[in-house]
């Protein structure tokens, strides 16, 4: 196995609480699947790691994210080789394993928490991530206000007020 490539691969993964390996190189996805290049060749990320461990996917078979939805695999962006298995293309199609079909069926958010509510537009949401998001937004607001105050205090002595520092003409000889 190519240790350097494995390290480079591992650096692009977040370990999700439910056991999924989430591909994080989001600008590097292909039809919803992670993409990884190795020796100048583009690979579907989950296939690359599966083959690095198990050898080539048998002729005529494709890798299927089989753990959904009952096990809560996050789906196409999961590259955990234990969350996919080789199946026939026909089986894969019958199971509706395209990224969009998978998303429609998904029961967990991208961090692996169960979806437990819907927002005003009917999108499924996870309250754990939503709470974390609003906490982060509030903290950012407070920090921004504090730093504005702080900068204001630092600048105050440097800003002459017209009343206290009238312009004076200096006589030159
Ligand atoms: Zn998974
Ligand atoms: Zn979540």
From TrEMBL:
Residues of the HNH nuclease domain: 45-65
Superkingdom per UniProt: Bacteria
Protein's name in the database: HNH nuclease domain-containing protein
Pfam families: HNH_3
Disordered: annotated segments: 94-121
InterPro entries, sorted: His-Me_finger_sf, HNH_nuc
């Amino acid at each position: 196995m190519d240790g350097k490539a494995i390290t480079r691969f591992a650096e692009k993964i977040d370990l999700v609480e439910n056991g999924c390996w989430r591909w994080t190189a989001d600008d590097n996805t292909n039809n919803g699947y992670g993409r990884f290049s190795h020796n100048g060749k583009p690979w579907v990320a989950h296939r690359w790691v599966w083959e690095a461990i198990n050898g080539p996917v048998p002729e005529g078979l494709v890798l299927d994210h089989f753990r959904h939805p009952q096990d809560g695999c996050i789906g196409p962006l999961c590259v955990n080789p234990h969350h996919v298995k080789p199946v026939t293309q026909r089986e894969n199609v019958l199971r509706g394993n395209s990224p969009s079909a998978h998303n429609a069926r998904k029961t967990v958010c991208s961090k692996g928490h169960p979806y437990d509510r819907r927002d005003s537009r009917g999108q499924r949401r996870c309250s754990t991530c939503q709470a974390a998001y609003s906490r982060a937004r509030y903290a950012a607001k407070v920090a921004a206000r504090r730093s504005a105050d702080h900068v204001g205090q630092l600048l105050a002595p440097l800003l002459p007020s017209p009343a206290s520092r009238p312009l004076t003409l200096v006589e030159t000889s």
